[in-house]
Structure formats: structure tokens, C-alpha cells
Predict the structure.
Amino acid sequence: MTDRFQNYRELQGANLEGIDYRIETAIRSRNHESIGQSALERAKSIIILGVHAGGIEPGTSELARSIAGEDFSLYLFEGITGNNKVLHITSTHFDEPRCTELVKNHHSSVSLHGFIESPSDPCVYVGGKDIGLKQQILSNLMNNGFSTEINTGKYAATAAGNICNRTSSGQGVQIEIAKGLRTQFFEDYSSRRGRENTTASFESFVKAIRNTLLNDSLGRQDHYR
């Protein structure tokens, strides 16, 4: 499906923030690059993104918040209208100013998305230019029972303009999660309220990624010592 809006300015001209969509941000100071930070502090800065969150790609808001926790910065662009799909701006065109400003001030990112799978697809595709982190996430998800592959096609996310790669290092990770798996993460996938109640599978998925990110942060610290 072709996006109705090619950038945020077009979307903003036809929709109202707080009515049709909302934006949520959280900056974790120890994971946000700023003047005066050491190389070590900059190296461990990671932001979790949900640029197609809320009703656009259901389940990504809840996943992003839980993965970020109190350790990583967070950005969500959430569809809250009855026609959320029209709010989808592809990741290489996504240019909402608060998002781009946050992303460029973090060393890496993890951008969460949802896709409609075919019978030949795994549950999860991992892409992006942060090769080391991408491989670690792949391994941890597979070790926790989630069928996962590195994508080299539609979901490769290797374009420099992809929002996940617009970090200070020019690299990030994109995680595409099949609808079938997302429905297993919640007692009732069909509504925002229903998605407040998560399952053991959701907790396992979140834990696998959080552990990867926390270990990666420690590894980056060791590199800069």
C-alpha cells in the first residue's frame, strides 16, 4: 500500500496532534548524547523507536515502552484515530522533527515495526546497519525460541535515510514482528485496552531484547575504557 503522506509536514497538514495522533518521548539522561559526555557515555546511548505505533502497527507501542524501561530513551508516534493506517510514513521518509533530533543524539537505535506475514516468513526479521547489535539480537531471540532471520530484502533497513540509521554513528537496528506473533503477546490484541494485559511470550521477547541491549551497552563501555 502506498503511503498517503510522503513526509511529516504533509501528515501534519491533514491531521491534528492529540486528536489523530500523539507523540511520546522519554530521554534517559545517561543514554542521551550531550555536550560534555565522555566517549564511554556516548557509546552506550540507545533510543527505542516506534514510528508506526498505536493503531498503525498494533503492539509496537507496548513493546517499545517495555524494552526501553528506565534504561533507554524512547520515541513513539502513535495513531489514535479510527483510520490509523493512513498515518503510516515509511521509515526512509519519516522526518517528524522531535524524532530526528532525538535519534541524531543517540549512538544507536532499535526501531520496532509490525508486518503481515506469509507462510514462508519467520516470526521476526532483523535489519539495520548496526551489524554487531543486529547479530546479537538475532541470536538472543533465536535462543529464546523466536524464529528470526536477518532480512536482506524489503525489511533490510540498510538505507542511510532509514530513521533507525540516522543516529550519530549512522547505524541502528530495525525489528519487524509478524502479526501472528504480536497477537500472541496480548490477551486481547484487538484493542488498546486489551493490549494492556500481556502474556508470557511478550515478557520473554522483551527480556531477550533488553538483555541484549544492556549487555551491548556494557560491551561498548569496555571498548572505551
Q: What stands out?
A: The two ends are 48 Å apart (CA to CA). The beta strands are 21-26, 46-54, 73-79, 108-115, 124-127, 148-150, 173-178. The chain has a mean pLDDT of 91.
